[in-house]
């Protein structure tokens, strides 16, 4: 295949099948789940066949036409009809036999009687951002988590086929946090994915001779390194960050809109203290304070060029704040993209010995 392709050979037409298709052909129930959208590249590669990963409308139609049993994620990225005479993807999915649940309450009320399932985050969460589940660091009470999805997937697939099932579950927002070099949300996403693994592991403990769990990654992102000139890590400082830099950009916009002339450097300085620990948990140098003040001035006077990453746009002030915090914690990054760094493969259960090096 080739970069950006979804389940096709280099001719961009001939489909190739995934392990999920093999599992379905062998009679297993099959689920595909993620903490981003159900039509994003990683989940899509298990069921779709399109020449480019950004063909979200077409990928969504491949999802509906697949014979898989369970899907979960934030939402579809392009659910609208492609033509005037076509139904939207939600209607197409229901017509194909799927029950669609938005949020945990709807899922808990419907999964036992459903024949096939699409488990999405709540409508309120989708109103905030439909492209993915919230970062664990930004989560509000009641928001869907990867552990919730994992638990729901196991329950539904076990009901669908008590003898065998396959499920791919992606902690996709680890990648997003690394693309934007935001260390604190990255740590929270890894911990959040670990909670999902814990759910799967509890199932494994009940069925150790029949269950295989594999944990790996498709790539490393960001060129994360521990150490940026000093020898003493202080990763505890990352706990001072209360939200992702993406959400802090939104917070700055909110403060500017609501405070008007009261949106002063003094107000922003105190807000940075609350949300990044600057001046209390993190002692800044004079140059760092001046650089933050300049970023504030650029923002107010319309000179802020911002910062762009693959999945986020940030204000210059928000981007600078996270970089300063990472520097004090001695966390460094080499890129905003993917790297060729090694990724681990962990295995436990039936057949795990086949994955030993």
Please give a structural write-up.
The protein has 357 residues and is α/β, with parallel strands linked by helices. The chain has two domains: 222 residues, Alkaline Phosphatase, subunit A; 107 residues, no CATH class. Helices cover 40% and strands 13% of the residues. The chain has 13 helices and 13 strands. The strands form five sheets. Strands 3-4-2-1-5 form a five-stranded parallel beta sheet, with helices on both faces. Strands 6-13 form a two-stranded antiparallel sheet. Strands 7-12 form a two-stranded antiparallel sheet. Strand 9 and strand 10 form a beta hairpin. Helix 10 crosses helix 13. The mean pLDDT is 97.
Low-confidence spans = none
List how many beta strands DSSP finds.
13
CATH topology of the largest domain: Alkaline Phosphatase, subunit A
Q: Indicate the overall shape.
A: globular
Quaternary class: single chain
Q: Tell me what portion of residues adopts beta-strand conformation.
A: 5-15%
Mean pLDDT: 97
Cross-sheet strand order for the largest sheet: 3-4-2-1-5
CATH architecture descriptor text of the largest domain: 3-Layer(aba) Sandwich
CATH homologous superfamily descriptor of the largest domain: Alkaline Phosphatase, subunit A
Largest sheet: 5 strands, parallel
CATH class of the largest domain: Alpha Beta
